[in-house]
Amino acid sequence: MERQTFKTLCRESGYSKDTLQRTFYTLLERAPKIKIIKREKVNLRMDATYFSQFCLVAYQDDFDGYTQLIRFTDGEHFEEIKEDIDNLIRLGIQIESITSDGHKSVLKAIKKSAPDIVVQRCLVHIQRMCLVWLTRYPKHSSGQELRRLVLLLLKIKTENDKLFWIQELEHWYNRHKDYISEKTFNEQTGRYWYKHKLVRRSYFTIKRALPNMFHYLQNPKIPSTTNGIEGYFSHLKNHLDIHRGLSLKNRINFIKWYIYFSNKK
Fold this sequence. Notes:
alpha/beta, 2 domains, 51% helix, Nucleotidyltransferase, domain 5, 265 residues, two-stranded antiparallel sheet
């Protein structure tokens, strides 16, 4: 959990570097299992992060950042996520909501396992994707106006804010629906393509997510973003990068120990 060099540890413990290394490798082999704590009305934040050789999927309680469940895999797969959610419910976690980045496998798994669970889409993720597609300086007024609306997303704190923002989005669509529906013919493929696909993609990404974007306004305990778990992943990777020489097995064991001690804190 702390960045201490072997030189410092040797001086403080009185042991040689070789002895400390043997001790650490022995401890890594004994990596503990993550304990699931039974709780009511849990608002989870869920996300995945990728390492060079594997993917880590984590389910955290937003109340105190406690990591209830982790999975080491190669991607975000429907069957695995469904199994995780089923196991959490079976082991006594009463899930009230799940905040996620909106990956199709995640949404499908939640709908299949527990359709009554509130799904909150991460506003930061929606904002980030749209800003990439719209670019920093859109050339057309449609992109400029939509970009300004997207930048307001994280400032929506009340029902009135939400209603105003949705109304502005609808006005935007009515003004520019002909523009974003324009098509061009591709002679090489013999197919028609939308001429302004990135502006169109931004709008319809928001439109599809809209039913699940503002649950946090009715229940303040629901996190509106996955920032908490993304920051957690960032700190984890910073610590793991110090130990670049670890084998794949020990990298996984290191993560288990890190999460175990984080939960203890």
